[in-house]
Amino acid sequence: MAEKRVVGVYRDDADADRAVQAAERVGATNVVRGGRSDHVASLQDEMREQMEHTFVGPGNVGPFTKEMSKGIARWTPAVTIALMVLAAPLAAMHMGRLGLPTRLAIVEACALATGATIGFLAGMMKGGKGVDRREDPLAAERGVVVGVTVDEAAADEVADAMAQAGPIRLDVSGTDGRPLSTLATEEDPG
Predict the structure, then answer these.
(1) What is the rounded distance in angstroms from the CA atom of residue 49 to the CA atom of residue 146?
(2) What is the 8-class DSSP label of residue 161?
(3) Residue 57 located in a structural domain
(4) Bridge-partner residues for 9, per DSSP?
(5) Of 58, 80, 151, 155, which shows the fewest CB atoms inside 10 Å?
(6) Enclosing domain of residue 99
(7) Beta bridge partners of 182
(8) 52-109, pLDDT tens digit by residue?
(9) What is the pTM of this model?
């Protein structure tokens, strides 16, 4: 029967002990605490996840992390709309022989382009403040790692039991190291 590897990272020894006990309560027998291969697997899974949530735009745009994308999505429309509203009165200014609808279209087009640019940059900068920094250690570097090898049929039950101990992150992979899923992270506790 195929096997899976469930690897959890916990804040302290007490949480790790609870995870070991929970895994053993549901029948796991091959529980390893602080194993080097589990430590490396957790680091690789976290780095892979960060890369999966990063995207590059066309040309030399990006890469954008998940946090930056959220900031861009929030700030671009807000700043664009605000600038379009604030710029509308400028259409009342005399511009040669142009009628009010033409002046309004010109002013709003300029406000739209300017607002979108400013909003995009502000969102990217604000969202970038939430990005994991190089000096911020990954979960496995600051927590206690617990790994369990189980039959494929029992993997979900063991993962659910280990999740009850409040992991920093919890990943499931094949015994060959191929990542299958991330069940919990600090920002999304499952």
Answers:
(1) 19
(2) H
(3) no
(4) 145, 169
(5) 58
(6) 66-128
(7) 171
(8) 556 566 655 666 776 777 888 889 999 999 999 999 999 988 888 899 999 999 999 9
(9) 0.54
